C-alpha cells in the first residue's frame, strides 16, 4: 500500500470553467471532497496557491495537518501562500505555524472571515510587510453571521470559529482546544477532568 503523503513541493488548486490545474497535470473539474487526499500532508517545501470556487468549497480543513509552507521556491510573484478569488468562508489551517520565506497574499475572497484576525508574525514569517490581506468579507458581515474567533482565543487570532482554531489561548489548552479551566472539559466531550488530566 502506498505510504500516506506527508510532504509535497508546490501545490496549485485552481478551478475555473475549464478545469483544475495541479502541479503538473490538467484535470477535469472536481468536487472539493477529492481534496481529502491532503489530510495527511504536513509540509509543503515550496508554495500553496488556491484560486477556486465551488458551492461546497468553504474551508481548508483538507489541510488540517499542514504545519509548514517553506517557500523554498516561490511563484513568479514571490508568493509562498496565495488564496485569491475563492468561495472560502474560513481557512481552518489550525496546524500551520511556519512560513519562513515568500509572500502571503489573501485577497478578493468575498465570503472569507478570520484572515484579518491572524497575527501572521506568529507563523515565523521573515518580513511582516510581505503579508497582504485585503478585499475579503467585511468584519460586520462576519459578526452578523457569528463568524468570529472563539472567546477562548487570545489576541493572536484564529483560523475559524471553534476553540480548536485559535493560534493561542487566553487561558489553558487541552489537547487542541482552548478552555477556561479544567472543569470545562465536559463541554468538549471529555468524561471528566480526572480522566483527561494526563493530556494537560
UniProtKB/TrEMBL annotation:
<dbReference type="Pfam" id="PF01030">
    <property type="entry name" value="Recep_L_domain"/>
</dbReference>
<dbReference type="InterPro" id="IPR036941">
    <property type="entry name" value="Rcpt_L-dom_sf"/>
</dbReference>
<feature type="domain" description="Receptor L-domain">
    <location>
        <begin position="32"/>
        <end position="123"/>
    </location>
</feature>
<dbReference type="Pfam" id="PF14843">
    <property type="entry name" value="GF_recep_IV"/>
</dbReference>
<keyword id="KW-0675">Receptor</keyword>
<dbReference type="InterPro" id="IPR006212">
    <property type="entry name" value="Furin_repeat"/>
</dbReference>
<protein>
    <submittedName>
        <fullName>Epidermal growth factor receptor</fullName>
    </submittedName>
</protein>
<feature type="domain" description="Growth factor receptor">
    <location>
        <begin position="149"/>
        <end position="186"/>
    </location>
</feature>
<dbReference type="InterPro" id="IPR000494">
    <property type="entry name" value="Rcpt_L-dom"/>
</dbReference>
<keyword id="KW-0325">Glycoprotein</keyword>
<dbReference type="InterPro" id="IPR032778">
    <property type="entry name" value="GF_recep_IV"/>
</dbReference>
Amino acid at each position: 500500500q502506498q505510504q500516506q503523503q506527508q510532504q509535497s513541493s508546490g501545490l496549485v488548486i485552481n478551478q475555473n470553467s475549464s478545469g483544475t490545474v495541479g502541479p503538473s497535470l490538467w484535470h477535469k473539474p472536481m468536487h472539493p471532497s477529492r481534496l481529502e487526499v491532503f489530510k495527511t500532508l504536513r509540509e509543503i517545501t515550496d508554495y500553496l496557491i488556491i484560486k477556486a470556487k465551488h458551492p461546497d468549497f468553504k474551508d481548508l480543513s483538507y489541510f488540517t495537518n499542514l504545519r509548514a509552507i517553506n517557500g523554498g521556491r516561490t511563484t513568479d510573484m514571490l508568493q509562498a501562500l496565495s488564496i485569491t478569488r475563492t468561495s472560502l468562508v474560513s481557512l481552518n489551517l489550525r496546524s500551520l505555524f511556519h512560513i519562513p520565506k515568500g509572500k502571503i497574499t489573501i485577497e478578493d475572497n468575498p465570503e472569507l472571515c478570520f484572515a484579518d484576525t491572524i497575527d501572521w508574525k506568529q507563523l515565523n514569517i521573515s518580513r511582516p510587510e510581505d503579508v497582504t490581506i485585503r478585499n475579503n468579507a467585511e468584519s460586520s458581515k462576519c459578526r452578523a453571521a457569528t463568524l468570529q474567533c472563539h472567546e477562548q482565543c487570545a489576541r493572536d487570532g484564529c483560523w475559524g470559529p471553534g476553540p480548536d482554531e485559535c493560534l493561542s489561548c487566553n487561558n489553558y489548552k487541552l489537547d487542541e482546544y482552548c478552555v477556561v479551566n479544567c472543569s470545562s472539559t465536559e463541554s468538549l466531550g471529555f468524561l471528566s477532568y480526572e480522566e483527561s488530566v494526563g493530556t494537560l
